[in-house]
Design a protein that fits this description.
This protein has 248 residues and is α/β, with parallel strands linked by helices. It has 6 helices and 10 strands, in the order βαβββαβββαβαβαβα. α2 (70-82) packs parallel to α5 (185-195).
């Protein structure tokens, strides 16, 4: 592709893309999802940003990976929106913060606590990070139809994966009922809101995070129960994306 026809960070085309996108952190997960689409093909691959396009139930969809963390992920979100994408759903993993949420369960995010490390430099601190209502409801409908255990509510997006010496407020979020912790969604929701794009997220629980991670040995997302949850989340998200009405 001519460099003038593609974006500098992700390599995706500046025009001609489908208007709906499913975004994930892992490039290999993006490829895995693409294999479920009809007429899928890879359209770009730079750094952690790998993108495919194909069709699900007659609806064209872009599937892209954004890597780990809000500052890098927002580069993909920005370029997708600049290319004309008007609907974006993030499918990721998260750690549970409340009892009764099991590994493999789905969390449908209604809103996020903004500790993403990037939106604090883009909008005022009091600006909310909220999912589009129609995406929340469509994801919930799809989760019910796919018999996927799920909850919906507030998610904490935090830039730090492993904690350091500072108190990051974990106790207060546990007490206020925040459901789970992840690293990128609030960046998507804030940017989407400021651009008039609808966005949302569904997360698969891959461990308990209520005690936080104190070293590199306490986290194992590579288990069958998590893989099964991701498979359910993929079906839920693809069906929800395809079922959403066109943006008015």
């Amino acid at each position: 592709m001519n460099p003038d026809e593609s974006f500098p960070v992700t390599g995706i085309a500046k025009s001609g893309l489908p208007t709906r996108a499913l975004v994930v952190g892992d490039p290999f997960r993006a490829e895995r999802i693409s294999r479920l689409l009809t007429d899928a093909r890879e359209i770009a691959h730079r750094r952690e940003y790998r993108s495919f396009r194909g069709t699900w139930n007659g609806t064209e969809i872009v599937v892209s990976s954004h890597g780990v963390g809000g500052p890098g992920a927002i580069c993909l979100f920005q370029e997708l929106m600049d290319a004309g994408v008007d609907t974006i759903v993030r499918l990721g993993t998260a750690g549970s913060l409340q009892t009764g949420i099991e590994d493999g369960d789905l969390i449908i995010a209604e809103s996020c606590v903004r500790d993403d490390g990037v939106t604090q430099q883009l909008v005022p601190e009091s600006y909310p990070a909220c999912s589009a209502a129609e995406i929340v409801l469509e994801l919930r409908r799809s989760a019910v139809e796919n018999a996927a255990p799920h909850q919906r509510g507030v998610v904490w997006t935090r830039a730090a994966f492993y904690p350091g010496v500072l108190d990051l407020g974990l106790k207060s979020y546990l007490e206020t009922g925040v459901l789970a912790i992840e690293m990128e969604l609030s960046a998507l929701l804030v940017l989407a809101s400021t651009r008039g794009v609808r966005a949302g997220g569904v997360l698969v629980i891959d461990g308990a995070a209520a005690d936080d991670l104190v070293d590199t040995t306490g986290y194992d997302p590579h288990r069958a129960i998590v893989t099964e949850g991701v498979d359910r989340a993929i079906a839920v998200t693809l069906e929800a994306l395809a079922a959403l009405p066109e943006v008015a």
